Amino acid sequence: MCLALPCKVVAIDGDNCTIDVSGMKKDISLALLDDVVIGDYVIVHVGYALTKLDPEEAEKTLALFAEMGEHALLESAREVH
Amino acid sequence: MDQGGVLLTVGWAGEQIVSARVDCRRPQAAKLLEGRPVAEAVALAPKLFSLCGCAQGAAARLAAAAAQGERLAVDSLCREVAQEAIGEHLWRLLLDWPPLLGLASGKDEFLHWRKRLLSAKTQQDSEAVAHDLIRWLPSLDDFSVSERAVLAPAQLLPWRDAAAWAASGITSAFAVAPVLAGSPAETGALARRSALPAVAALLADGRRVAARLAARRADVEFLAQGLLEPSLLAGWLDSAPAGEGVGLARVETARGLLLHLMQVKDGRVEAYVIVAPTEWNFHPQGAFVGELVGKNAATRERAAALAGHLALALDPCVNYEVRVEDA
Fold first, then answer.
1. For B316, which residue in chain A has the nearest alpha carbon?
2. Three-state SS for B117?
3. Closest by alpha carbon to B117, among B218, B4, B191, B223?
4. What is the distance in angstroms between the Cα of B318 and the nearest Cα belonging to chain A?
5. Would residue B68 count as lying in a domain?
6. Which domains does chain A show, CATH number per domain?
7. Contacts of B118-121 spanning 24+ positions with Cβ under 8 A
8. Chain B residue with Cα closest to A72
9. Considering CB atoms only, which of B2, B48, B111 is closest to A31?
10. pLDDT tens digits for B100-151?
11. Using the beta-carbon criterion (under 8 Å), do A4 and B50 form an inter-chain contact?
12. A chain contacts of residue B49, beta-carbon cutoff 8 Å
């Protein structure tokens, strides 16, 4: 049950991008998705952006995870590779 | 340092792996659904999970319906869940296994199939993908992994319907370390396909990692056949009432059995329990630990590789990290 934590795309370089997840930056592949632009939210698993979310939905999901508390949110952020 | 979801600590004593420990740290996402109106919880469930969103969504809908004494038509649910499971299997077979074994990644093939599976929205689309998948499968590398298990492994989880699970006392404590009749068990493609001759032969030879790979391929073929002939997928998911206002859903996923138990009171979710496949396979005395201990490993690197192969074969749905310690 890998949590679907929305991650914001902050930079794009060809088929790769940099995401910001709870303040941590990570480089991942965009090979599975088309049409991702800076500012989009994506769901990530083992180095790949899996799905693109609309920003409103992403904010809602982030708020939901925030209910689990800061600690749990950080735990799941570290799980994002 | 990364603190992945599952930490696998392997004790290595020069020649042999002598111990293995699993530390799972996973947020209890099901708790987020408690206290919400049923419809809201059902809509949220698939959004909480990155990998098996369709299966989680289907389980939530089935559990909610069973809790409220309703019946759901499952045909289209089955099709979506099957396509998702095929995609998950292909991820392992094309992206994850080849580099571990020194082979080239099948990234382009994976992208091709993933895009087709995601865009198949009608029965006709699904049948077209299924036909092509079945034709393509024989060209997939069989990897020839030769590692053998030494000790008696965990039992394979038998197929049981939702009514049987509904009578099994599913609680949030059970969800953390599930057992069947008091013992841990392995769920997933191997448990589903162990009776196939090719898989059974590998099992009899002790080549359990190879058996899991063969079972995964067989599972892709079964699911593709199921897209062509939906009645084949009749046992893939179901639901049952589990007491007054309580519903239990059972959905098979690429990684194995997924159970959702929902208790409804006055239109709201009173309690929600999710039992995920990873908790069976990475149980403290489960398949990972039971199978790794006793394996010969001449070097630390070999010990780490054996642990990595077994972990990937058992396929945790969260990131995992292997650490080898001197025992």
1. A1
2. helix
3. B223
4. 5
5. yes
6. 6-79 (2.30.30.140)
7. B118/B83, B118/B87, B120/B83
8. B27
9. B111
10. 888 998 989 999 999 999 999 999 999 999 999 999 999 988 787 888 877 7
11. yes
12. 1-4
User: How does pLDDT run across B79-112, given as a tens digit for each residue?
Assistant: 999 999 999 999 999 999 999 888 998 989 999 9
| Residues spanned by the domain of B289 | 6-326
Enumerate the residues of chain A whose CB falls inside 8 A of the CB of residue B26.
1, 75
Closest CA to B214 of B283, B111, B279, B138: B138
Number of domains in chain B: 1
Question: Does position B3 have pLDDT exceeding 50, yes or no?
Answer: no
Q: For residue B50, what is the nearest residue in chain A, using CA coordinates?
A: A4
A residues 35..54 contacting B (CB < 8 A): 43-46, 50-51
Supply A67's token pair.
Answer: 């209910």
Q: What angle do CA B221, B280, B73 make, to 5 degrees?
A: 55
Query: At residue B67, what is the residue type?
Result: A
Could you tell me where the beta strands, DSSP code E, fall in B66-173?
155-156
